[in-house]
Amino acid sequence: MENELTYAALQAIGMATGAALCASLGLMQFRVDRATGGPSGYQLLWVVGFIWTLGRFLRYTLQLAGLDEEASSVRLAETLAWSCTILGPIAIGRLLQARLGMTSRLARAFLGFTGVASILNLSLFAWVGATQALELDASWYPEASLYVALIVTAIALMLYRVGRHEIAPAGSRSRWFGRGAFLLAVLQVGAALLTLRSSWLPTGLHAALSLIGEHWAIPWSILIAVSLAQTHYADVVLKRSLWLLTSVSIATLASAFVFNVPPGFAVVVTTLGCAALMLSAPFLIRALNFLVDRVYLNRADYLAAANLFEESVRRVYDQEKLFDAALLAVRSTLRVGARWVPTGDVAAATTNALASISVETDNRPGYRLEVSASHQARTLMAEELGFLNAMGAHVTRRLDAIYFEQEQRALHVREERLKRLLTEAELKALRTQVDPHFLFNTLNTIADLIGSRPQQAERMTERLAECFRYALSRHARELSTLDDELEFARHYLDIEQERFGDRLRVQLSRGDACGNESVPSLLLQPLLENAIRHGLAPLREGGCISVAAKREGDYLRLQVDDDGVGLRPGFQDKPGVGLRNVTERLHALYAQAARFAIGSRPDGRGTSVTVLVPLHGN
């Protein structure tokens, strides 16, 4: 009799543990399914396990309470436990569908088959319940439902092997689950069959096999939840499962060996009560902490206050503002006086400070946050000192970040200044190459005219003075307006027309440009010089040179055309000094934003030079 009571008590304790575990997993899975939509196979699995364990727990508990197996309440408990077999096939179908995909034909067909199996179980369940007065444990229904479950599971495994090529290859976790599931299934199915078919077994062995066969909910729940369920709560499952099992095991041992509770209903009540106390201990401790902190001591939520301060100063980039925010948080939370004192300033230190928190950073002056009493000041206990330490840590981290950001900004400013100085030096070097080159060529032209045509030489000298007056006025400025450049081009072409006479014809057009667009100073002069010297001068009859400006979206297009001899062979490999300076100045001013192109005109006569400069900025 004592052995029977011990067996029933262990069954009741185990079933209560399984019910609590399945309920916990079911609630977690419910939150996941609510976000993804629709109950999953895992959710149905936990429901099946909860129904089974709850029904068996009620059955054994009622038996321990003194009720006969023929009592209607015991029969109802049996009926509740075995009703889980109705949902079992559908749960297996949904699990397979989750593995193969919701749109898989195999999974959908098998789900329909599991629906038929569930209807079969429902029919057998109703017929046995009606014909045998709900005495399901002693009927043939447990064995029949086991065979149905084995057939459904075997078909599911075959379909999974056929359809798994459509999904990602199995990882180490799935392989581990397969081996563990196979061993567990062999153990529990074998135990269940031996319990049902082998009445000749010794009583002790029969009881042990019955425990293994009936308590499938706990091992299968943990195995499936940890290895196959959504990974974002698998760690929680493992922790809560171990916590629950450890608490129940300790409570069972304490009831048997510490409290010496006699076998039977008292063991179940004592064990579950002790386990409930251990499981609720963290909640009880939190409740007591809340009672002391919020009700008795009227403390603020220091953790929330520290986190709020950290979040509020995340975008503070000034040390003074950071210190002011820290003082405000400390004063308002602890209702104390507070101030910042430099670490090395001994004279400014307060002798009666309640607490002092140091804030130290690398290669920077340190500070101390001194807290002093006020008429509303709180007594600084462990929680208050912890809050001050947390505030000091937050200020130190943010101060390090501010110093780092300041150093990065200073470094960036220095780099930009060096780049600007380098660019200005390059531009000045290019300008010193352009100006003497222009002067040298013009003076040669004047020298040629002094002997034969002195009046023209005089006019050319005047034009040259106007050109150099413009060049000198733009010496410190790399950009000029389009109108100024076109005016300079007109003076320069007047000089060349004095030399070439009717052989040089000129066309200047501003097009749809406004005239105030910014262009590089002295940009057109080397282009005009090359067009005249290399394109028109070799021709006896001379030719025409045209300068045109036009807006094209965000760019200003400058085009210099001539109908001269065209480009010489190999020009691209060895351009002249003037054109090379033009391209280098454009790159220095605009980087990759400007364009320079030179080629033959569309009609095949002469040369066309195109410059595109952005209208906005450099």
CATH topology of one domain: Heat Shock Protein 90
Q: N-to-C SSE series?
A: HHHHHHHHHHHHHEEEHHEHEEHEEHEE
CATH superfamily of one domain: Histidine kinase-like ATPase, C-terminal domain
Oligomeric state of the chains in view: single chain
Distance, first to last CA: 99 Å
Question: Which class do the helix and strand fractions yield?
Answer: alpha+beta
Indicate the CATH class of one domain.
Answer: Alpha Beta
Q: Strands across the major sheet, in which order? A: 5-7-8-10-9
Strand content: 5-15%
Residue share in helices? 55-70%
The total of beta strands comes to 10
Radius of gyration over C-alpha positions, nearest whole angstrom: 47 Å
CATH architect. name of one domain: 2-Layer Sandwich
What does the average pLDDT come to? 81
Runs in which pLDDT lies below 50 for 5 or more consecutive residues are none
Identify the overall geometry.
Answer: elongated
Description of the molecule:
The protein is an alpha+beta fold and 618 residues long. The protein has helices at residues 2-36, 41-64, 72-82, 84-100, 105-131, 141-163, 172-197, 203-214, 217-227, 234-258, 265-296, 302-312, 319-334, 382-452, 454-473, 482-500, 524-536, 577-590, and strands spanning 337-342, 355-359, 367-372, 479-481, 504-509, 518-520, 543-552, 555-562, 595-600, 607-614. The radius of gyration is 47 Å and the shape is elongated. 30% of the residues are buried. The mean pLDDT is 81. One of its GO terms (cellular component) is membrane. One of its GO terms (molecular function) is phosphorelay sensor kinase activity.
